[in-house]
Write a structure and sequence with these properties.
Blueprint (H helix, E strand, L loop, with lengths): L4 E4 L2 E4 L2 H31 L7 H22 L7 H22 L1
Antiparallel strand pairs: 1-2
Helix pairs in contact: 1-2, 2-3
């Protein structure tokens, strides 16, 4: 089983077990919910011609564990679907993140 490792002041310590799993699952869920929300918010701002969320921010959320949420938001809100980098990149990252997450759980 792959386990999450955090760096402490005195070096590495193992964060396996229930607490480690709960933290990783919570972080995974939070990042994906954030990804879904920011895609909806950016779409809303685009419709109103308001100041937009930077594409870099969308990518960073996807890269740091929110790719499934950003991909779902892209499809749900029909946002950024014409941009090839998003159309291919978000689902690709979502697949990688899902595989890594499932491998970590098993």
């Amino acid at each position: 089983m792959i386990k999450a490792i955090l760096i402490a002041e005195d070096g590495f310590f193992d964060m396996g077990g229930f607490l480690g799993m709960a933290i990783v699952v919570t972080a995974f869920l939070v990042m994906n919910i954030v990804g879904l929300i920011i895609m909806g918010e950016d779409k809303k701002r685009a419709k109103k011609h308001e100041y937009r969320i930077r594409e870099r921010t969308l990518w960073l959320v996807a890269l740091f564990g929110g790719a499934i949420g950003t991909t779902a938001g892209m499809q749900l809100y029909r946002h950024k679907t014409k941009h090839l980098s998003f159309k291919i990149g978000f689902p690709f990252l979502a697949g990688i993140e899902l595989i890594l997450f499932l491998k970590w759980l098993i």
